[in-house]
C-alpha cells in the first residue's frame, strides 16, 4: 500500500500551494493497489462531475477523481478514479464501453502510483498561495 497522504502533504508543503479540501484526507489514509481505474475517451468538456455521474452508484473516495492534463495544461480525455474498495473498482471496470455525453468510455485498471502522479501534476498547476499584501508590498 502507498501512503498517499504523506506524499501529497510533502508535495503541498514544498510548493506552498493552496489545496481544496478533500484532495488529501485523513492522516493515515492509504491507497490500496486495487482501487484505481483509468477512464479513457472522455469528451474534452467532461469535468469531475461528469466522471462522478459516469460512475454513479459506486463509492468514489473523497478527492478520488484526477483529470489528466496535456503538457499544455488542457484536459486530454482521461481521468484516474480512486474507489473506496476493490469491489467498487471491479464494478467500475464493468462500465467499460458505456457512454458518457455520446462517447463510449474505456475503463482499465490503474495503479495508485499513476493516481498520485496525475494528482501531483494537478497540484503543480495550482496557483501558489501567498498573502495578498505580499504582492503589494512595493506600494507602501
From TrEMBL:
<keyword id="KW-0694">RNA-binding</keyword>
<dbReference type="InterPro" id="IPR050666">
    <property type="entry name" value="ESRP"/>
</dbReference>
<dbReference type="InterPro" id="IPR035979">
    <property type="entry name" value="RBD_domain_sf"/>
</dbReference>
<dbReference type="InterPro" id="IPR012677">
    <property type="entry name" value="Nucleotide-bd_a/b_plait_sf"/>
</dbReference>
<protein>
    <recommendedName>
        <fullName>RRM domain-containing protein</fullName>
    </recommendedName>
</protein>
<keyword id="KW-0677">Repeat</keyword>
<dbReference type="GO" id="GO:0003723">
    <property type="term" value="F:RNA binding"/>
</dbReference>
